[in-house]
Give the backbone structure.
Amino acid sequence: MTVIDDLTVSTDLAREAAALLETDSADVQVTMALEAGALADAIARLSLLPRRSWILVASSIEGLIETVGEETAERLLAVAEQAELAQRPRPRLDW
């Protein structure tokens, strides 16, 4: 069983940013792009493996498409049993 939780977390964080953030250095941007590309590639490969059990947790179908690409998302959605879960509670920051 392969479990990939919060697959769309980087996409979600970028969408939910409340203020403009300082641009990361070129080195950091390259590293993040490589990691995102590797993750999308791994998910694409996972979706092609026969008789495999996997669980992916994504915040939305739109986020899934943005994270792994439309072709991979369509392939995943065609074979996956989907469940809509209650939203995770946000941590309280009132210290």
